[in-house]
Amino acid sequence: MGMNVTQKLISDHLVSGDMKQGEEIGMKIDQTLTQDATGTLVMLELEAMGIDQVKTEVSAQYVDHNLIQEDHKNPDDHLFLQSATQRFGIHFSKAGNGVSHPVHMQRLGKPGKTLLGSDSHTCAAGSLGMLAIGAGGMEVAMAAAGKPFYVKMPQVWGVKLTGDLPDWVSAKDVILELLRRHDVKGGSGKIIEYYGPGVKKLSAMDRHVIANMGAELGATTSVFPSDENVKDFLTAEKRGDDWTPLEADADATYDIDEEINMSELEPLIAKPSSPGNVVPVREVAGEPVYQTYIGSSANPGYRDFAIVAQIVKGRTIAEGVSLDVNPSSRQTLSDLIKTENLFHLIDAGGRLHQAGCNGCIGMGQAPASGRNSLRTVPRNFPGRSGTREDSVFLCSPEVAAAAALTGKITDPRDLDMDYPTVDIPEPTINNDLLDEPLPLEQARQVKIEKGPNIASIPDFDSLPDELEISVGLKVGDNISTDEILAGGGRVLPYRSNLPEISKFTFEKVDETYYDRAMELKEQGGHAIIGGSNYGQGSSREHAALAPRFLGLRVVIAKDIARIHWQNLPNFGVLPLTFANETDHDKIKQGDVLKLTNVRESIQQSNKINVEVNGKETIETKHALSERQIEIMLEGGLINWVKKGEVPS
Length: 648
Description:
Blueprint: H1 5-13, E1 14-16, E2 24-27, E3 31-35, H2 36-48, E4 58-62, H3 73-88, E5 91-93, H4 100-107, E6 114-117, E7 131-134, H5 137-144, E8 149-152, E9 155-162, H6 171-182, E10 190-195, H7 204-212, E11 221-223, H8 228-236, E12 256-261, E13 268-270, E14 278-280, E15 291-295, H9 302-312, E16 322-326, H10 330-338, H11 341-347, E17 351-352, E18 372-375, E19 391-394, H12 397-406, E20 434-435, H13 440-443, E21 467-474, H14 481-484, H15 498-501, H16 513-521, E22 526-530, H17 542-549, E23 552-557, H18 562-570, E24 574-578, E25 592-595, H19 598-604, E26 607-612, E27 616-621, H20 626-634, H21 637-642
Parallel strand pairs: 3-4, 3-6, 4-5, 6-7, 9-10, 9-12, 10-11, 15-16, 15-18, 16-17, 18-19, 21-22, 22-23, 23-24
Antiparallel strand pairs: 1-2, 2-8, 5-20, 13-14, 21-25, 24-27, 25-26, 26-27
Helix pairs in contact: 2-3, 2-5, 6-7, 9-11, 9-12
């Protein structure tokens, strides 16, 4: 029997385990990606491990999140990152070069390679025929140090694409259709592989749009073949020699089969406040709009901006609407300038911002209270925009442009114009803007610059054999890492200062959590009770690290999103799930939980009994591998590394 693309990529990099669903496998990682909101910790972790230089084929550090320089913290950390990359042999992309995912695709991504990134949207590189996975920073640091990456073998979900996209429908509507069908948990434990005749109708950047938002389905990653369209993209980027073909065998099969006829799609939109809350645009047409926002890693290509420029060309946006233009990369911005499409955007009334993530993670461009914002970004979790009570819709560039012109949510097919065509220009390429790694001997002379806002990661103790702790917080379903620890201009500047950033923990859910957690910390710590899909969204390890700093020892949930589930034991937090989900209703905030003989229990069985208030006992389960159990016993991955337990 033939192999699909996913199986080929995994088998080519498999170093331990068998490719059996649910079994832990270890894979060699060829490339790593970090961005500035997560990279500071990764660099501190590399330093703590005593790494001389990274062992990957390519590692790259991007500055794209924390671009607002209202005081010293962000620029100081940028200097820290630049000096650390010089010391460790890592590519460095400075502020203004753009969002990590499209820049990596343009400059460094290669078909057939593995990529591990400390950003959940690392999966966007699947557009090139890569196995690209988002993970916590500690795991990326380990991969950069030449160690395998471990994950439970997912199911391979084959999505056959047929037909062609109609006018006014684009790649964003393909991934929104999958979210409409399956919601934010639909991809959990799965790799989505796209194949079929419809794939040939999608450019490499169209595929980026679809692969990027596979993260919103909870998928491990998304994979496309490396075909002539990928070759054309790399050739245009003057990297044609990096192309290699990679396609599924003719007799390949999938664990799950699905089909999307792109010819039948219509413009879609995700209503507040979940990427899975998808409906046809026509169902919400007429709702007033305050802001339309184009850009981000979810719609980063030249075409995604140029189509908006052509729609608004010679027109003026509606009164009271803010059209925010957020270029995804310096290269894309240069191309928009030379083709006059930037002129059309600005002339129509658009507002130009610097190339970067910006409003996607609440770093500027926050919408007004009580007003609707239509965005081409990947996520609309509550408050992620920077406005606490926000109303953010996710949509395609075409829908955003139509709303900008009309001042209300509008099906773009109702505009009085023909669908514009966009010609893709020869890219404007300046390879000097991406700093190359220094030679080893020169790198060893570099002193890492640390500003006053950088604090070392504290030591954490090992797992106690008995825990008697209070429930510090109880939450419902689909709590995201944005709600556990927000992004945005208030919070992200403290990303390298754990004591300070921990003060923002769970503030969107319960403003009293920090003070309560600090009190409970003196009493041995606390537990958190979660619902379904706890910890969905961003890969930020701060969402595990900050609660751990505040004394979190155990999370018990109905189920836990993959990346957050992996991050918890990496910092010594025991992740458990209810054997019977109805037991979630039996535990209240403030209840006292008792776990006895914990160390032996997690080694001998996957079942852990938890006594509630000294009266009732409920059964919980863990899904830790033998390797993760060792890490958990030591109190986290850093302690495990220090003990010298890391295999080659």
